Amino acid sequence: MLLQGFEMPEDDKNRTDFSNPPANLPPDPSLVRPEARELRGFRVYEGWLTPEEQAGLVTDLREILRKAPLFSPVTPSGAQMSVRMSSAGNFGWMSDAKGYRYAPHHPQGSAWPPIPPVLTALWGALVPQARPPETCLINYYGPEAKMGMHQDRDEGDLSQPVVSVSLGDEALFRIGNLERGGKTESLWLRSGDVVVMEGAARLRYHGVDRIAAGTSLLLKQPGRINLTMRVVTPSRVD
Ligand SMILES: O=C(O)CCC(=O)C(=O)O
């Protein structure tokens, strides 16, 4: 039940047949990746992942979520988030009455599964100077889910980037300022798009206002997956 939003189409003729893609495709040297465009310091790579890579990633995610099922986090003030979450990597992001934090275990007690190699390769290609990612937060948005404006600041080393991958239905992504409030700008993120938040833009407020259900054929049901890779631990001072 927890995996339903991620199942690939098997018998729907209107959808591309990605039903049995290889989990990790070999790099194709002839593949030309898109250049970034910049919006308020966020680097946006439209269509960075090919449809085949997206489908392979969904296969990887299905396996991850079998071991670390999605759960519905509750904010410290007691509100249930509309986005369901899980994680891969050494840590997973958690929220409950005790606050926001990273934890080494899923709420059910198991370690988080490893981050899929296609994602660590993407990180290496787009932020080669960064430390390796220590977590990949998996956000699942149903058609009604959204995410309020927030900063990503629970990590121990804010000099390290956040790399965000969109899969499935389009999302209206809003970028704000370094402090709450003020004018904002929005863009639609589509399946395969990647956003890099780093440097001066790392702490910009951002959020997701809505999902345009049914705009992608990648997932079996309407909805969106967002993956954000981050470094969690403080940098070592030797
Ligand atoms: O879903 C998105 O595109 C953004 C996710 C996000 O802001 C977060 O996980 O902190």
Automatic annotation (TrEMBL):
Renumbered residue ranges of the record's region Disordered: 1-32
Name of the featured protein: Alpha-ketoglutarate-dependent dioxygenase AlkB
Domain Fe2OG dioxygenase, residue spans: 132-233
Keyword hit for DNA-binding: no
Pfam families (UniProt xref): 2OG-FeII_Oxy_2 (PF13532)
Keywords: Dioxygenase, Iron, Metal-binding, Oxidoreductase
Organism: Thioclava kandeliae
Cofactor: Fe(2+)
GO molecular function terms noted in the UniProt entry: dioxygenase activity
Keyword Oxidoreductase: yes
InterPro entries: Alkb, AlkB-like, AlkB-like_sf, Oxoglu/Fe-dep_dioxygenase_dom
